[in-house]
Design goal:
The complex is a heterotrimer. By secondary structure, chain A is an alpha/beta fold. Chain A contains twelve helices and 13 strands. Chain A has a six-stranded mixed beta sheet, with helices on both faces. Chain A has a four-stranded antiparallel beta sheet with strand order 11-12-10-13. A three-stranded antiparallel beta sheet of chain A has the order 2-1-4, with helices on one face. Classes of the chains: A alpha/beta, B mainly alpha, C mainly alpha. Chain C: Keywords: Membrane, Transmembrane, Transmembrane helix.
Chain lengths: 296, 127, 248
């Protein structure tokens, strides 16, 4: 069953198209990574899916309903980011108590255990938490609410490395025990890729691709070698990224579409894997060059 | 085991190799039930779909078989198949890499074989 | 995972409960405002001396209009505060849509009006008690010291109606100002302009509006006029904000 269906989804903000003819579906009980550079439209998409923002054009369905301003969606889809607002007249334990009244699947025991594990004080006020602590607290709300659609937008902002890895493990364990549809947006694909089933890559409001993570890892290979050899090998192939290491030495990232890799090795080209996160960065670069071109 | 996340091998391949190694070590015997995809996901903090892919890889190679509703079990021929595969693929691959490196360094075939022999003797001496 | 279905009524009830907790400051500020108003009144608002037939007479008027005016101002300000960006976003921390949020806000304002109405009228009697016991006076004239309970009740109901109407107007104005960031600046001028234009084109319309609301002495038309107007204000506010996006 599809939890999310988008068809030609467009969001116009002033003159800019934050989302541009986006079409995709997300299956029930999968973990999807929403990847893209700053301003690619990740947050816009998630806010539309959560029913907070309104689409300009196209159709968007969550649990077969239009999400905007919809109580069913509000009760079953939670959007967690570092801008979450809670009344500063409530203490942290008040907030957890209130969340429990609103969310039908709320697990108070899990919330309490996480709350203690990350050593929060019940009388603290949300506004006064540090950036990382705020993210951690919001994450607790996101996990314990057990919403059928749970969306984390850059959930690890400000978290230290140890809290981040705790979060990923907590997320996975709770997902295994209570499967649900989860979307995580992140700049750090390398940190979350093991958790993911699929990756949705956005580039300037458009879908670049929507692939299982394993296919993404074999999507392209890196070729390093003498420039003319690399050129010869990648002729008629889709070159994603290329960088001149030295005058006569080139590193190219080429789409792995029946590439003659053995021949390449014989030509003295070093064939390397391209990690999913590197690949996403290369794919969504505005120009084929890089920061070096600025300094030319 | 800690998974190698530098992208050198897909996670699901690493999972299937880990199970193979468990069988080789004798930790998983013939007709014994292997870990479920959820258990594996929990053990390695990976997506259960990835773990399932690793298990399916082994089913396709007749190393595991399905019992409906019960899970996956080790086949009779699993051990033989794994040894065979490791010999023909992993070991050969390693040797190929060694051969390429030897060629680059102008190490002769005789010299390479001698090096290998020396390593083998050392290993046996340790054991 | 099966979906949780929550009706509008359930969500509104939960939100109202949440808001009473989150806005408890509204009630403590009510107490503060009325105490200040009372203290100002105890000083006496009009003081004058006169001589009639060689008899010198000093009289002080103790009026409860302070309390009433302050309470009206209090509900007006809180109605506007409820529509600000921060408060709207806080309302959407948990399950909500625009309709449920608006209805729970309106309900909250009605609850606050009831609290404000009761305390404002009763504090008038408190003032009388204070003046009677603590201030050295010779005569207490002008109003009766004791009122029959029926009249007290009427006063409370009327005060609640005033507050609900003022609250609904404040809420509507607040919602309108949220539509565009220029509106908080422009709206006062626009409103003043409309009122001036109204007075120019239809002279005496101010008086007419005042009479329409404040010269009504029959209970039911009075209730109808006040509650009806408040319902219209709330409904317009709900309509205007139904398309608003949250967390812009």
């Amino acid at each position: 069953m599809n939890v999310i269906e988008c068809e030609g989804l467009t969001k116009q903000q002033w003159r800019l198209k934050a989302l541009d003819e986006l079409s995709f579906t997300i299956k029930e009980n999968t973990i999807t990574g929403l990847i893209g550079r700053n301003g690619a439209g990740k947050t816009t998409l998630l806010k539309i899916l959560a029913g907070l923002w309104q689409e300009t054009n196209g159709t968007v369905r969550v649990f077969s309903e239009r999400p905007f301003n919809n109580l069913l969606i509000s009760a079953n889809a939670i959007y967690v980011d570092d801008q979450m607002q809670f009344s500063n007249r409530l203490t942290l334990s008040d907030i957890l108590h209130e969340a429990g009244r609103f969310y039908g699947n709320w697990d108070a025991e899990l919330a309490r255990r996480l709350f203690n594990y990350f050593s929060f004080h019940p009388k603290q006020v949300h506004m006064h938490l540090s950036k990382g602590k705020k993210s951690t607290f919001n994450m607790i709300i996101g996990l314990a609410s057990r919403c059928a659609l749970t969306m984390f937008d850059e959930p690890t902002t400000g978290m230290d490395a140890s809290v981040r890895s705790d979060f990923y493990r907590a997320l996975l364990k709770d997902y295994l025990a209570y499967p649900r549809t989860i979307i995580i947006s992140s700049h750090h694909l390398e940190e979350i890729e093991d958790l993911l089933e699929d990756v949705l890559l956005l580039d300037q409001g458009r879908k670049y691709f929507h692939l299982p993570i394993d296919e993404l890892k074999e999507y392209a290979v890196g070729l390093t070698g003498r420039t003319e050899m690399v050129m010869q090998c990648s002729a008629n192939q889709e070159v994603i990224h290329t960088r001149q290491i030295r005058d006569d030495l080139t590193y190219s990232v080429v789409k792995n579409d029946n590439l003659p890799l053995n021949k390449a090795r014989q030509l003295g080209i070093e064939v390397s894997k391209v990690s999913a996160s590197e690949l996403c960065v290369f794919l969504t670069k505005k120009t084929k060059g890089g920061i070096d071109d600025v300094f030319k | 085991m800690i998974l190698n996340t530098d992208g050198s091998k897909p996670i699901y391949v690493q999972i299937s190799e880990w199970i193979e190694t468990e069988i080789l070590k004798g930790n998983l015997k013939q007709d014994e039930k292997v870990y479920s995809q959820y258990k594996l996901a929990e053990m390695f903090t990976i997506n259960p779909a990835t773990a399932a892919k690793g298990l399916n890889l082994l089913s396709d190679e007749n190393i595991l078989y399905n019992k409906r509703g019960l899970g996956k079990f080790v086949t009779n021929e699993a051990l033989g198949l794994i040894i065979d595969k490791r010999k023909n693929q992993t070991l050969k691959g390693l040797l190929l890499e060694a051969a390429i490196e030897a060629k680059q360094l102008n190490v002769s075939e005789v010299e390479l074989v001698q090096m290998l022999k020396g390593i083998m003797t050392n290993l046996e001496g340790d054991a | 995972m099966s979906l949780n279905r929550m009706g509008l009524g359930t969500v509104v009830a939960k939100q109202l409960q949440y808001k009473i907790k989150a806005y408890y400051g509204v009630f403590s500020s009510l107490v503060l405002v009325q105490v200040i108003a009372l203290l100002l009144s105890v000083g006496g608002s009009v003081f004058s001396g006169t001589t009639i037939y060689g008899l010198s007479l000093d009289y002080t008027t103790y009026m409860t209009t302070n309390v009433i005016a302050f309470t009206i101002l209090w509900i007006f300000i809180h109605a506007i505060i409820m529509t600000t960006k921060t408060e709207r976003e806080n309302s959407f921390s948990f399950v909500s849509n625009q309709l449920s949020n608006n209805i729970s806000n309106c309900t909250f304002l009605i609850v606050a009006s009831i609290a404000g109405g009761i305390t404002a009228i009763l504090s008038g009697y408190l003032l009388r008690v204070i003046v009677y016991f603590f201030i050295d006076i010779d005569l207490l004239i002008g109003t009766e010291f004791y009122y029959p309970p029926g009249e007290v009740f009427q006063g409370i109901v009327a005060m609640i109606c005033y507050l609900i109407l003022i609250g609904s107007v404040g809420y509507l104005l607040g919602v309108i100002t949220q539509l565009h960031r220029m509106l908080p600046v422009l709206l006062p001028f626009v409103l003043a302009g409309i009122l001036i234009a109204l007075e120019r084109i239809f002279p005496g319309s101010f008086m007419a509006i005042g009479e329409y609301y404040f010269q009504e002495t029959n209970v039911f038309p009075f209730l109808f006029k006040f509650i009806g107007s408040a319902v219209i204000c709330f409904a317009v506010a709900i309509l205007i904000s139904s398309r608003l996006e949250v967390r812009k």
